[in-house]
Specification:
The protein is mostly helical and about 60 residues long. The protein has two helices and two strands, in the order E-H-H-E. The protein has a domain of about 40 residues. The longest helix has 20 residues. The chain is elongated, with a radius of gyration of 13 Å.
Length: about 60
């Protein structure tokens, strides 16, 4: 279970983006193209989120 509030910064978002891209590429390699598209879409969202982070930390609740 996640804590009620957690810190999330630009570096965290960039790390998630890289991990999601790796998952997408792995899914493509085994022919799971729908899954790959989902992971690529999530990576794109995370990329946009990382770009929009102005503060070093954002509290998620």
């Amino acid at each position: 279970m996640l804590p009620k509030k957690m810190s999330f910064n630009k570096q965290d978002a960039q790390d998630w983006e890289k991990d999601l891209i790796q998952l997408a590429e792995a899914a493509e390699e085994i022919g799971k193209y729908e899954t790959a598209r989902m992971f690529f879409a999530c990576a794109a969202i995370m990329h946009d989120f990382a770009e929009k982070l102005k503060k070093p930390d954002v509290l998620l609740s």
